[in-house]
Write a structure and sequence with these properties.
The chain has three helices and no strands. With 80 residues, the chain is mainly α. The protein has a domain of 51 residues. The longest helix is centred in the middle third of the chain and has 15 residues.
Length: 80
């Protein structure tokens, strides 16, 4: 059994908590299809963190935006 831990992503301006668990689960499923286990977990964590900044039930970010957060771009500026 493998234990994987990710870095903590602090969300200081939470807009909406609804849907964050779904965003995490969807991010993990997407990640497991496209990446190794560690990167999949980091992808899910970043997807969940970004969802906290979006009003409503649906995570409206792209996989590229999630990967930017994974790469350390946590300045809070989303490119649309």
């Amino acid at each position: 059994m493998e234990y994987i831990e990710t870095d903590e992503l602090e969300v200081t301006d939470v807009v909406d908590r609804i849907g964050t668990g779904d965003a995490y689960a969807a991010g993990l499923i997407y990640g497991l299809i496209h990446f190794d286990n560690e990167k999949a977990l980091r992808f899910a964590n970043a997807a969940c963190a970004l969802k906290h900044t979006i009003l409503g039930d649906v995570n409206l970010v792209s996989p590229q935006e999630i990967e930017e957060v994974m790469a350390g771009n946590t300045g809070g500026r989303i490119k649309r």
